[in-house]
Write a structure and sequence with these properties.
By secondary structure, the chain is an alpha/beta fold. The protein has one domain: 3-Layer(aba) Sandwich (Rossmann fold). The chain is built from 12 helices and 7 strands. A 7-stranded mixed sheet has the order 3-4-2-5-1-6-7, with helices on both faces. It binds adenosine-5'-triphosphate (ATP) and magnesium ion. Magnesium ion binds next to helix 1.
């Protein structure tokens, strides 16, 4: 059975989508079958993996709302070998509102992820929106692991505490299998004191795991999505590609 990992942080622009695409790419290049699932109405993951939104008809919004639409029916291959995507569109924001009144609303994604999909992939990576609403909750209920990207450019730990609290509630009430795989330091710039301070204070917190891998600030990371491929394909020799390969190895290790 595959490992389902949610990439979550309600703070915007911390590198969730970047992590989902590039960790997905790194796992795929190691030969694993990977599904990147877009749970954000902004659809940055979908676009960043080279899908033209004009060509997306049925998407994750329909899957969550309509009992008759299977997740497998919306999955598309990407330009990258071993890497598929379950696309989102802006429709997902109205679907979230609609889902609010549904019975079992927190379980909608978990139900759709069962059997056929999870058996087909070694890893399913879920890109969450920058909110702590019903979509992120669905991801946390469906996942067995969560990665929390944290930007090391300002003191962003207050928001992380709120997220960790929700994760605790999900673990105790809805999904005991959920494990925090780690906080992932992003946008790291070793030249700044703030960056180094932030990294130190993350590691000192102690009661949760911080990945050894640090994602540095890099222009190439911002460029790769415009080509619709992960950094490991776009610029295989870059430091950023190596970092995501390291992260992939850490994630694989955590789930052995
Ligand atoms: N390490 C990095 N170095 C430089 N730019 C980065 C890095 N990581 C991400 N970016 C860029 O910063 C922006 C925000 O990153 P990303 O979209 O991954 O964040 P996000 O947490 O998914 O945002 P949102 O909360 O809006 O979904 C993007 O333009 C991305 O290309
Ligand atoms: Mg995003």
């Amino acid at each position: 059975m595959g490992t389902v990992i949610a990439v979550a942080n309600q703070k915007g622009g911390v590198g969730k989508t970047t992590c989902t695409i590039n960790l997905g790419g790194a796992l795929a290049s190691l030969g694993h079958r990977v599904l990147c699932l877009d749970l954000d109405p902004q659809a940055n993951l979908t676009v960043g993996l080279g899908i033209d939104l004009n060509t997306v008809d049925k998407n994750i919004a329909n899957v969550l709302i309509d009992p008759d639409i299977k997740l497998t029916s919306i999955i598309r291959p990407t330009k990258t070998k071993n890497l598929d995507v379950a696309p989102a569109t802006l429709e997902l924001s109205s679907a979230e509102v609609e889902l609010f009144n549904a019975i079992g609303r927190e379980m909608a994604l978990r139900d759709k992820l069962s059997q056929d999909v999870v058996q087909r992939y070694a890893y399913v990576l879920i890109d969450c929106p920058p909110t702590l609403g019903l979509l992120t909750l669905n991801a946390l209920v469906a996942a067995n692991g969560v990665i929390i990207p944290v930007q090391t450019q300002y003191y962003a730990l207050k928001g992380v505490a709120a997220l960790l609290k929700i994760i605790k509630t999900v673990q105790s009430r809805l999904n005991p299998k959920l494990k925090v795989l780690g906080l992932l330091p992003t946008f790291y710039d070793s030249r700044t004191i703030l960056g180094r301070d932030m990294l130190d204070s993350l590691r000192e917190l102690g009661d949760h795991q911080v990945f050894e891998t640090v994602i540095r600030q890099s222009v190439k990371i911002g460029e790769a999505p415009t080509a619709g491929v992960p950094i490991g394909v776009y610029e295989p020799r870059s430091d950023a590609a190596k970092s995501f390969a390291d992260l992939a190895r850490e994630v694989i290790g955590a789930h052995k």
